[in-house]
């Protein structure tokens, strides 16, 4: 037997808000790290600076992948919310129409 999925608007909105918050936090972290990296690389002239720069570039690339993943999930959740809204609207319209018979 298939499990019935129940969706309510408040839960969907809460989930979308959580993803938006996560994306905002991630973007803030990315900007802060990028600023710190730029500042350090502008003044640091040791061999360790080169190694740090390479590692930081790799870390930033990973963070960009996280950003892409969050954007994909957020987009899919927005699509899901729209689909459930449309389905609920169609169900209400269908139920209202059947009462009129």
**In which range does the helix fraction lie?**
over 70%
Global morphology: rod-shaped
Query: Strand fraction band?
Result: under 5%
* Tally of helical runs: 2
Mean of residue pLDDT values: 83
Structural class: mainly alpha
Query: How many beta-strand elements?
Result: 0
Distance between the termini: 32 Å
What's a quick, concise take on this entry?
The chain is mainly α and 101 residues long. The protein has helices at 9-43, 47-100. The longest helix is centred in the last third of the chain and has 54 residues, at 47-100.
Structural notes for this entry:
There is one protein chain. The protein is mostly helical and 101 residues long. The protein has helices spanning 9-43, 47-100. It is rod-shaped and about 75 Å long. The model has no long low-confidence stretch (mean pLDDT 83).
Element layout with pairings:
Elements: H1 9-43, H2 47-100
Helix pairs in contact: 1-2
Q: What are the main properties of this structure?
A:
101 residues; mainly alpha; 2 helices; 88% helix; rod-shaped
